[in-house]
Amino acid sequence: MSIVKTENLIYEYVKRDEEGNEDGVIRAVDDVSLGIRQGDFIAIVGHNGSGKSTLAKHMNAILQPTQGTVWVDGMDTRQEEYIWNIRQRAGMVFQNPDNQIIGQVVEEDVGFGPENLGVPTEEIWKRVEESLRAVGMYQFRSHSPNRLSGGQKQRVSIAGVLAMRPRCIVLDEPTAMLDPSGRREVIHAVRELNQTEKVTVILITHYMEEVIQADHIYVMDKGQIAMEGTPREIFSKVEELQRLRLDVPQVTLLAYELKKRGLDLPDGILTTQELVQALTGHA
Amino acid sequence: MLRDITLGQYYQTESVIHRLDPRVKLAGTLLYIISLFLFENIAGYIVAALFLALVIGLSHVPFKFMVRGMKAILFLLLITVLFNLFLTPGEALVSLWKLTITREGLHNAVFMALRLCYLIIGSSVMTLTTTPNHLTDGMEKGLRPLKFFRVPVHEVAMIMSIALRFIPILLEETDKIMKAQIARGADFESGNLIKRAKAMVPLLVPLFISAFRRANDLAMAMEARCYHGGEGRTKMKPLVYRRRDRLAYLCILLYLGCKATVGILL
Fold first, then answer.
1. Of B155, B188, B233, B142, which is closest to residue A118 (Cα–Cα)?
2. Measured distance CA(B15)–CA(B64) in Å, rounded
3. Do residues A143 and A159 lie in contact, with contact meaning Cβ atoms separated by under 8 Å?
4. How far apart, in whole angstroms, are the C-alpha atoms of residue A228 and residue A234?
């Protein structure tokens, strides 16, 4: 069964000019239907303004569809009575680490979600400890978030969501404001969660290197799903990706260029190792 | 300059004061401040200073952190001292041109300055040893009776806690914007008061825009984590009075007794 399912999802908003007059309707998400299986690692990529963040905000009932339907764990996001259940099932991590940490101490922040859910005190402590251990931040439990690095702050945010025991985590460009090492840290933590805790992960990003390990990739453009498939399927279409203004990992690009010049290489090479193997196998 | 305000800056360490129930610390701070304004005399100030020194010693927070908070009110302190010094009528000590320093003025100025210093340091001790979340928890629970009068105690506590959490972030941001504007030729330091106030506009406008954006983001993040007001909310760190809290109340009462006795007898 799908944990998140959308059917003909359309989201429109009215654009206003500086005086507040209506200036046309923008369709941010245009007829998207998808189903995400429990336990998968899903990546949604697309350049700025492709509608990927708007789509993500529907999976947590922050936005309501203009047309079409979104189901989270079988619950329609438009039904008011399910809203808190939906937000507990599908946790969300946002882009700016500073603007989503509420507590002044790491452990208090992680406890914020369970507190809102009305979880008993002892259980909150248990969950906080488990969640912080799962993202490798337990030794920082009594630190102030202001003294952590960007990657560490994002891991705390992920722990904050985990403590609500979600079945699915939606990460809306969690690495956009981080340096390369912070980015690696966060992606590693997310992958670990997916593999050991079996949490469904929906990662929204525009860094193509981060999606190589995904089970399934959706590429968005102009509010629609332009491409979908496994990483290998997606990255074998280098020209199409470039047309959608997306970066292709360097190795994939190199393999693509070599193939164009006449080398007999397979499509969709994702890692340096694969390329080396393919090349030496030939020589 | 703005960075020097220690209020809302929790200092992480282990101490008895840190572990006290925030309600004790809140009530203690309030009583301490009130005590500063009652029973004025030199002996009383010595008692107050001793008590403050004892609490600071127990708190394990380096003294320089407390003094840091003082820099921000230096200007206010100076004005208070000068006004008291020159504008109190009474027996003249020194006369300079049109200004006269009176015995009463000197007395007032010194005590007012002391009082303000004690007040700031005293409340800094509280904010340095209590996480804002803890502090607002204390207020929320301590002020719960007000709910009866339809005072939104939980909401106010939450607002305060968030405000405190964002102070360091916004200060950092102010610094960044200031540097960015200085790099473009903005001048924050010269000119008269009006000119300087005008110079603040290019600092304040981006700061406010950013603060609103952050508020919007934060509200969304809070809703995403199922925040829906104080109704049905449990506590990760519920407040329970322990033995040390009762002892602390006793200490505060002892201090008040001491101060009153000294104040009345001497």
1. B233
2. 17
3. no
4. 7
Indicate if B82 and B114 belong to the same structural domain: yes
Q: Which helix or strand (DSSP H or E) is residue A221 part of?
A: strand A216-221
Of A118, A125, A128, the CB nearest to B232: A118
Number of domains in chain B: 2
Mean pLDDT for back-to-back runs of 10 residues, chain B (266 residues): 49 85 91 86 86 90 81 85 83 75 84 88 87 79 84 86 83 90 84 84 91 92 89 84 91 90 81
Which of A85, A138, A164 is closest to B234 using CA atoms? A164
Residue B1: strand, helix, or coil? coil
Contact A124, A114 (CB under 8 A): yes
CA B170/CA B203 separation, integer angstroms: 12
- CATH superfamily name and code, A2-248: P-loop containing nucleotide triphosphate hydrolases (3.40.50.300)
For residues B243 and B204, membership in a common domain is answered with no
Burial label, A66 (beta-carbon count in 10 A; 0-12, 13-18, 19+): middle
pTM value is: 0.77
Q: Does A122 touch chain B (CB under 8 A)?
A: no
Map out the domains of chain A as residue ranges.
2-248
Task: Give contacts of A58 with chain B, Cβ < 8 Å.
Answer: none
* Distance separating alpha carbons of residues B141 and B149, to the nearest angstrom: 15
Instruction: Return the DSSP state at A136.
Output: T
Using a CB-CB cut-off of 8 Å, the residues of chain B touching A129 are: none
- Per the domain annotation, does B94 fall within a domain? yes
Instruction: Please give the residue range of the domain that contains residue B91.
Output: 1-130+238-266
User: In this predicted complex, what is the ipTM?
Assistant: 0.86
Residues of B with CB under 8 A from a CB of A: 10, 12, 131-133, 161-162, 164-165, 168-169, 214, 217-218, 220-228, 232-238
> Does residue A96 belong to the interface with chain B, where contact is any CB pair within 8 Å?
yes
Are B109 and B6 contained in the same domain?
yes
Structure tokens at A179: 């340096």
